[in-house]
UniProtKB/TrEMBL annotation:
NCBIfam families for this protein: hisC, PRK03321.1
Protein name, UniProt field: Aromatic amino acid aminotransferase
Assembly notes: Homodimer.
Molecular functions (GO terms): transaminase activity
Signal sequence interval, chain numbering: none
Cofactor: pyridoxal 5'-phosphate
Residues carrying N6-(pyridoxal phosphate)lysine: K224
UniProt lineage: Bacteria, Bacillati, Actinomycetota, Actinomycetes, Micrococcales
Source domain of life: Bacteria
InterPro entries: Aminotrans_II_pyridoxalP_BS (IPR001917), Aminotransferase_I/II_large (IPR004839), ArAT (IPR024892), HisP_aminotrans (IPR005861), HistidinolP_aminotransfase (IPR050106), PyrdxlP-dep_Trfase (IPR015424), PyrdxlP-dep_Trfase_major (IPR015421), PyrdxlP-dep_Trfase_small (IPR015422)
Documented EC number(s): 2.6.1.57
Record bears the keyword Lyase: no
Length: 359
């Protein structure tokens, strides 16, 4: 046996050794409300559970490597060719494969900050150099500043709309101006993880954008609106040649059998109708939570996702700890702000009571 004090002499890649940790939302212990990971508070739909149960009896076999039926189901649902769809183990994995497909060592990847905390990690893992552009004081993406940050070394730009964790969407005209400005050989990822919660008519239709700009990749997920966070199903929509590149960098058998069958079930018309009802209820709760916070005197950015953002600055860590002690788990970004998912009514009420006390 190797003695425990033998030094490890295998070097990690410099970029890997320097990676920031991805801090996930706290796991609830006991009876806590979990508003830390933008999850769907509704339990899985009965038809989805039934599909998972059937699939469970088949897990001695490998899944369909290319998830053909799931890909075809998504293609039909979205209205693109199956050669334009790539699925993966959550959209975070799909995004990693997107960057691995196009980023050469040292290429620049431009993204807003603060935004989805996986962006800097995935960029570094893919060998890229992160170039961050601050969001505005209203939590909006500054697309003109992002366009100005593009250099001849830029290979990709990540556009998160709605932006996690602040909430606003980009507008179709802003995105159009941006796409007209950036070189055609720069890949623009439009991350629409929260698409189904968007109620702003000025928000772009990613698919329409993709049709007119072949350098765009649209990223979507079944984790949020469709309630499959625990199974990990995300997808990219892209021009066939880019889609083939993303498929080539993808982990073999990256979407497991239960996830494939559940994903297919979630996209059938009766399940979709239930999904839409749940999303409507979450959007109504979002309006109630945001309005109540504003009545309490908080400055809440406009949100089109299933969360709200409180820019608490230096108070963030302390107040998040208070919330956890009171049984409400939120997502603190220490020194900056707190993201609070929209959950079940009782969870939202518990959070609103805490927020009132903090004023
Ligand atoms: N994009 C954004 C903007 C997100 O907020 C998230 C989840 N937090 C993801 C992508 C990844 O979601 P998943 O891997 O579950 O599909």
């Amino acid at each position: 046996d190797t003695p425990p004090d033998t030094p490890v002499t295998v070097p990690l890649r410099a970029a890997v050794a320097a990676l920031p940790a991805y801090v996930p939302g706290a796991r609830p212990s006991g009876r806590a409300y979990k508003l830390s990971s933008n999850e769907n508070p509704y339990p899985p739909l009965p038809s989805v559970l039934a599909a998972i149960q059937t699939a469970a009896a088949e897990v001695n076999r490998y899944p369909d490597m290319y998830a053909t039926e799931l890909v075809e189901t998504i293609a039909g649902y979205v209205g693109v060719g199956a050669d334009q769809v790539v699925v993966g183990n959550g959209s975070v994995a799909v995004l990693q494969h997107v960057l691995e497909a196009v980023v050469e060592p040292g290429d620049e990847v431009v993204f807003p900050w603060r935004s989805f905390e996986a962006y800097p990690i995935i960029t570094a893992v893919a060998g890229g150099t992160a170039v961050t552009v601050p969001v505005t004081s209203a939590g909006r993406l500054d697309l003109p500043a992002m366009a100005a940050a593009v250099t001849e070394r830029t290979r990709a730009v990540l556009v998160c709309t709605p932006n996690n964790p602040t909430g606003p969407v980009v507008h179709a005209d802003e995105l159009e101006t941006f796409l007209a400005t950036v070189r055609r050989d720069v890949l623009v990822v439009v991350d629409e993880a929260y698409l189904e919660f968007v109620r702003d008519p000025a928000s772009p239709d990613g698919l329409d954008v993709l049709r007119r700009h072949p350098n765009v990749v649209v990223l979507r997920t079944l984790s949020k609106a469709y309630g499959l966070a625990g199974l990990r199903v995300g997808y990219a929509l892209a021009a066939p040649r880019l889609a083939a590149g993303i498929r080539a960098t993808s982990t073999p058998f990256g979407v497991n059998h239960l996830a494939q069958r559940a994903g297919i079930a979630a996209l059938q018309p009766p399940a979709l109708a239930e999904m839409i009802e749940h999303v409507e209820a979450i959007v109504a709760e979002r309006t109630r939570v945001a309005d109540t916070l504003r009545e309490q005197g908080w400055d809440v950015p406009e949100t089109h996702a299933n969360f709200v953002w409180l820019g608490l600055g230096e108070r963030t860590a302390e107040l998040a700890a208070q919330a956890a002690a009171a049984g409400v788990l939120v997502r603190p970004f220490p020194g900056d702000g707190m993201r609070v998912s929209i959950g079940e009514v009782a969870a939202n009420d518990a959070f609103l009571a805490l927020a009132a006390g903090w004023r």
